[in-house]
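User: My advisor, Dr. K., asked me to get a structural model of this assembly before our group meeting. I'm new to this, so sorry if the format is off. These are the inputs:
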Amino acid sequence: MATTLQPVDAVLVGFGWTGAIMGQQLCDAGLNVVALERGPWRDTPTDFATGFAQDELRYMWRHHLFQNVSDDTITIRNTVDQEALPMRRLGSFLLGTGVGSGGVHWNGQIWRFLPTDFLTKSHNEKRYGKKAVSDYDMTLQDWGITYDELEPHYDQFDKVCGTSGKAGNIRGKIQPGGNPFEGPRANEFPNPPMAQTYGPTLFGKAAAELGRHPFPHPTGNMSQAYTNPLGVQMGACTYCGFCEKFGCGNYSKASPQTTILPYLLQKSNFTLKTESEVLRVELTPDKTRATGVTYVNSAGEEFFQPAEMVILSAYVLQNVRLLLLSGIGKPYDPKTGEGVVGKHYAYQTMSSVNVFFDDKILNPFIGAGALATVIDDFNGDNFDHGGLGFIGGAYIAGMITGGRPIEMIYTPQGVPNWGMEWKHAAAKNYLRSFSLSVHGSCMSARGNYLDLDPTYRDIHGRPMLRMTFDFTQNDHKMSDYLTDRAAEVAKAMNPREIKLNRRSGSWSVTPYQTTHNTGGAIMGDNPKNSVVNKYLQSWDVPNVFSMGSGAFPQNAGYNPTGTVAALAYHSADAIKSQYLKAPGPLVRA
Amino acid sequence: MVTKVNQQRRKLLIGSVAAGVAGAAAASVHDGELGAPPQTIRGAVPWKEGAADSPPGVSGSGYNYFTAVEAEFIVAAVGRLIPNDAVGPGAVEANVPFFLDRQLAGPFGRGDHYYLGGPWPKGTPEQGYQSRFSPAQLYRAAIAAVDQYVAAHLGAATFAKLAADDQDKTLKGLESGDIKLEGGVDAKSFFTMFLQNTKEGYFSDPIYGGNKDMGPWKMIGFPGAHYNYKEWVSRHGETVPFPPVSFKGRPGWTEG
Amino acid sequence: MHRVTRFQKRILAASALAVFGVSGLAAAQMLALPAHPVSTLTPRDLLTRQLGDAASNAAQVNRGRYLVAAGDCMSCHLRQGGEPFAGGLGLNTPFGVIYSANITPDPNTGIGSWTSEQFYHAMHDGKSAHGDDLYPAFPYPWFKRVSRGDDDAIFAYLKTVPAVNYTPPKNDLAFPFNFRSLVGAWNLMFLDSHDFQTDTGQSAEWNRGAYLVTGLGHCGGCHTPKNSFGADKSKAELHGGKLENWVAPDLTSNTRIGLGGWTVDDIEEFLASGRNAHAAAGGAMAEVITNSTSLMSDVDRRAIAVYLKSQPASPMISSAAPESGAMHRGEEIYSDVCSSCHLDNGIGQSRLFPPLGKDAMLQQEDPTGLLHLILGGTQVGVSSSRPAPLGMPSFAWKLTDQEIADVSTFIRNSWGNQAAAVSASDVGDLRKKLDLRSLRLTDNSGDH
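Assistant: The format is fine. Below is the predicted structure of the whole assembly, which you can bring to the meeting.
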């Protein structure tokens, strides 16, 4: 029997980036806010201090900061006619949990999507014809929001994070040294770019020789000490090489802990409860209004937290599952194409090219999460796709995030994975090789979706989320084309040899690719084709807001966090300026 | 942190594995690591003097998990996966068997981060690990099955008694899945895990029992737990002078 | 006098050797609040909210609130998991544990039934409402210099905070200190006979600083060394003290171990935000920043700074050069362990991670403060404009006593620093006192 708690103005389900952003925004507006985080408290000096944060075994391979799938996982399959089976171990993506969640163990890669990325369907259809957006069972949609609407909020996030980088386009004026393809920015980055190590520098030179437009990767790793507008301070990155999958020990990576939480915790109208997992959103009998959430904590106590607003600020997979479990919105059916919740699940199409030198010591252990020189010449619609048979693209990054030896020893083509030959290749190449990352878009398709599994249940008896996904032919063609473009740059660096790691075959849950899952709670301009409006507000239950990359109708060729954060700030703005005055739908259907 | 909640959770996990029931009912929930109590945080950033989520290093000597026969297999096999020569230590010389033993005797071996509930139909390769075995159970079953295979097909009592070339051939057969094992063991799944764990023991911090004297780190030129390269970022192509260091130090900390 | 002397002998016989006048530092950490609090107001709210003009005594109450912050009352009268001002924090003194009182307006367990006269006597004379002697763990020897008007304002404010029905534990004092009557004798010996006196030869700003430092602020409670009765050592005002395994640094103009290298602006910034170009306020000072000085006015912080800068330098202490082996080993450890934040050559990061060269805290004769930081770590005090309690992590699990001794010796004698070498047994003793000989894990440590 659940104990009913004192009502609050807003309850946040999950406390990662979007929870922190919404908490700060809503508390500043004077609301009483409770955040419920399913995982533990953790913070820099006690839980990922410099004395032990650089532990490849514990964090990367024993999943010490990630969701523990032992009592709650998802089920997976490639196609609707297969039987979905549990993801018994994390692999392809590394789901976050705990205070700060993925915002603690991300790389800090902070991107904005291109203006045309928000118009994936209409723009590509106009330029390349109807077939280009409907081939391969693709089901694309425009976002119902424009880059210009989001720009101030991208800017807000940059200032909170102290993003280090070089602008390529300030108010329409192209800036030397930046990304000339990016949408116009109102402002230069708050911090200058990071210093580049040898590998990224060689990549940039080679790319420039080929006529590409290299620039430093925008990053939430601090190029220098920084104080953000909330007064929260970060230190300079020391390039330790343990960013992604790890917490930062010296306050030099933007995270909820290092940018927002200290400010938020000074506010008496904010309460954070840890080890508290929300089981469902409770609705009125007519299902038009949420009354709060029911959650259970690690002591086994169940509570009902009444709230005027429910903000789903967990990861996309949890948000979509809670919508489905709570009966908010109509579930998607791939057979009929009817329904919206769960549709347009998409991912990221990753490949890479390894580069091996004889004569150059690259010191790969000197790294940072977003320490890279990048070209964006072949991303989104930055190039003519005429005759290529695909849409979308990728950025190509000459990147050294670190040299963690269990994960990051590159050996040339044909070298076995073990034995004396492998050992000799490891010894010879470790200091002299690195990897170009091809970070590709992923288009939504009719058969790729999320729903509830009919067989497997978690320890609370709730159905697990079922993921049905495979890469489309569009994405395979895109990825092959982009991998070849990366190989061109690799060869131009005059290495001894290169190795192409293409994204071939069906999506597999085993090898790590990236934790950029998107869709399932997508945004749009009407309730027939989307779950939430452009303010991330549920069309069906207007006091429920669903944050995160679930809102992406398809995924662009960039890391999602910048856009996830901008959408949250955009939503918070509308809640503060409109919703609080007149609670109800912010967009009339 | 062994709390009551933690212990209950561990029992429950073991129980649900044995029962093989999908979604066994439970009174408590956890995420991330096991056993943290719920906290209500208001007003200030919590902190506790002297507290550190320090690495769960290992201690002692000898084997806690492996039987003598299993240990023979492990020593023989990791010696082929990463052989010893002048370039750098082999897996045996780097103490990988001890590392594996402690891993399998601990949370990893118990499958603390694996979902092991049923049903367990055979999956596609894309669906990844689909065994009902925890890693420790898988090692036990697989070692017995490999020895059984060797006895039946290669005329030696056990894998450890094979000549090195035959050991390599057997390992390749496991890697490719060409060798089919008895006892419900998927050869490829086992080999994938075994090779991965061997490399983990070879290259992880010595606090976990392998990577003896940081020999593997020295071989490749990795400075280990050193955290600050700020002054070396722009010194392209130069050899960084920091000797490998583990969480618990290096000779330079105590000598001289 | 005869009786006092007898008392004196008895205390000496009981080997009482160190401080009495501690402040509330047993926890030395940010306190968690109760899950279901009486009030939703946090300590910070209580110390910052303005009372509306509607109340007839609003001006007096608001002044009282400010003075309560200036006196750092919160740090002692709030225990782990407790309510603001409800007390119950155990103060470890060499004579036993003394628990802070409930000073909320609860009539039964707090000061709800007190009169302003009784409150004044507590502040000024160390007497409870029933006329009993209060132990000088309550800093009335300093509060004696607070004006009656200020005491009345403090009392008026405390009447407005949420009443909490809570009785702190009984003091746990060894014989003979459990006899309150002995405090009367102590008062005769050590309590100043006069109230605060303005020095007409100094500026109004200096005098305001003196009033705050020697009165309500009770800085000397920590920063002045104590004699064997726990009273201030004479002629050593603000020469630095030791309490609760911390060292409160010298605040005189001593250029090595005091504030000689700091400007008035440096001190002001430090008091306002807990951080400046030289240092960060960790350890016991963190709470003082958070609950007190960050909430004071710029004018008062400046007055404090001006007064402190006028203090004559304490004597210079010399030390023998450390042996080269320790320096060498310490340098190696520093490179791997400390340079992650303090960077190469101890240059630090201004206002984040203190630079270590020519550092007063590092050069204190007694290395306890430094060793405490390395063993236990610390949070830095916070303010509304600098809310991040940037943490130094604990290295107790990682470094041996010898390694901590060596790296401490190294940084105490590098980059312009000069101080006595540290021994492994110094570290071991403190490790034992801090109960850090075994691992102290966190909520996230489920894989242990």
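One thing worth pointing out at the meeting: Residues 195 and 242 of chain B are 29 Å apart (CA to CA).

User: Perfect, thanks a lot.
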